Amino acid sequence: MRKKEKRWITIGLIVLFAAIAWWAYNGGFGSGGFIDLSNTLGGDNTSEETTYQLAVADLAASVDQTTGHVTVSFSLTNEEHFNISSVQVLYALNVADPNNATYTALNATAENDTYKAEIPSKFGDVVYYKVKVVYDGTKELVTDVQSITVTDTTAPTATLSIEYNATTGNATITINASDNDAIDKVVLFYAVTADGNLTNVTFSNVTLNVSPYTYTLTVDSNTTDTTYYYLDVYAEVHDISGNMARVPENGTVQLYANETKTVSG
């Protein structure tokens, strides 16, 4: 090839590359400049570090109606990102100042991502509790103090009987009461009438605090005549959690004091 032809070919290639460069710079087939290949070639070289926070979630307490124990349950958020060495429930019973009380520690056990610990409380207690988590060496996460009053929802059961002695004219009233926890008191209501008509009758009452719950009263002070009286009674039985049972459920147990006998209801 002649030198002149080579020179023209070289000039043509230079012009061609210059044209391509100008075309690319001015947008090619589209609008806007050079094609940015940075995302295709290298992506975004900057990265953000995710910060995780350990937290106690779904904190709750429930009372076992059989034992009076309190079970505290909760979960830990983002626990998989931390080196957790202990999870505990701290509790105190019936303290005057829960923020400055001495707390007993119970290890919480995990099941299906839920932690639980059972506090050995009893009905009538006020339980103060909080969660303590030790992680990443000596770091601690401690929740605010929570509280729950341990109450049962089961009312007492009771029976009532009247034993009348026609010789003395006295009636002994006995209330047999029981509860899943403990009886607080028995309030006995009674009225003595000439005809058993309770309309506009005001009942007297007496509070019995010690078992056996018995009370003796005079129904007929003159047992030699032929006048006989009526005794009507009922009782309210209270447990220490405020549940109450009435015996009988409705009305009264009525005794007609004409002879020695026992009536119940």
What structural class is derived from the secondary structure elements? mainly beta
Report the biggest beta sheet as strand number plus sense, adding barrel if it closes: 5 strands, antiparallel
Discrete helix count = 2
Number of strands: 18
Mean pLDDT: 88
Q: What gyration radius follows from the Cα positions, in whole Å?
A: 43 Å
Fraction in helix: 10-25%
- Assembly state here? single chain
Our estimate of the beta-strand percent is over 45%
Give the ordered list of helices and strands.
HHEEEEEEEEEEEEEEEEEE
Q: Note the gap between the termini.
A: 133 Å
| Dominant shape | rod-shaped
Low-confidence stretches: 29-46
Describe the structure.
- This protein is mostly beta strands and 265 residues long.
- It has helices at residues 3-25, 38-41, and strands at residues 55-63, 70-77, 84-93, 104-107, 109-111, 114-119, 126-135, 139-142, 146-149, 157-165, 170-178, 183-193, 204-208, 213-218, 230-239, 244-247, 253-256, 261-264.
- The protein starts with a helix and ends with a strand.
- Residues 29-46 have low confidence and may be disordered.
Descriptive labels:
5-stranded antiparallel sheet; 265 residues; 18 strands; single chain; mainly beta
